[in-house]
Specification:
The chain is α+β, with helices and mostly antiparallel strands and 130 residues long. It has helices spanning 7-18, 46-51, 56-67, 71-80; strands at residues 30-34, 37-43, 89-99, 102-104, 110-115, 119-124. Strands 1, 2, 3, 4, 5 and 6 form a 6-stranded antiparallel sheet that branches. It is globular and about 50 Å long.
């Protein structure tokens, strides 16, 4: 098996991926410390992340990549992505960065993708200042 740092977060990402309709509007909030930055948001499936208007360019790249693969390659890639050691990213909605006493964006949040290997610490629940 490969590096399984943050196995619980990888498992969370796998559960979200396995039940996209349940997590379409985001799961329970999670707060992450990543290389000194605090990020708080709600996990969503990759498909929901790619549907967001702000991620239209990423969606276009994804579509181009899929067009270049055979059905067998797509099936193999999907099978491999269901293994916990191959889960490398957590997709969040309503995400906010906490830097000092600043919250960015200050309202509504945004979509964020987090490299699971960059997570230093985490807790379940939304961070709130004040």
């Amino acid at each position: 098996m490969s590096d399984l740092r943050n196995a619980e977060i990888r498992l969370l990402a796998l559960v979200v991926k396995a039940d996209p309709e349940r997590f379409r509007n985001g799961g329970d909030p999670i707060t992450l410390a990543c290389n000194g930055v605090i990020i708080s948001g709600r996990p969503v499936p990759r498909s929901v992340f790619l549907e967001a208007k702000q991620n239209a360019t990423l969606k276009a790249f994804e579509d181009l990549t899929l067009q270049s693969l055979t059905k067998e390659e797509i099936a193999e890639d999907e099978e491999q992505s269901n293994l916990i050691e191959n889960i490398h990213k957590l997709y969040l909605t309503d995400a906010q960065y906490y830097i000092g006493d600043k919250v960015i964006p200050s309202q509504n949040g945004t979509f964020v993708v987090v490299n699971i290997n960059s997570i230093d610490a985490y807790n379940f629940g939304k961070l709130s200042l004040g």
